[in-house]
Amino acid sequence: MALTSEERLRAAEEAVRQLRGGLAEVGVTLPSLRVDPLTAAGDGTLPLVELGRCNLDTALRLAAALEAGR
What we know:
Blueprint: H1 5-25, E1 34-35, H2 37-41, E2 49-50, H3 56-68
Antiparallel strand pairs: 1-2
């Protein structure tokens, strides 16, 4: 059974919520993190999650968090 447009959008929003929370726990904030509005409006595919741009400090914090998780 295929997901409806609304279900796909809710799934993407939940993924963003979980990712934002997990990143916050390790001290990383991606200000541009969001559901991509163009793909969210489309039919048939799952919306994309935009991780967006970040400054050097954020990139280094993210890299350190990933390294610590290994």
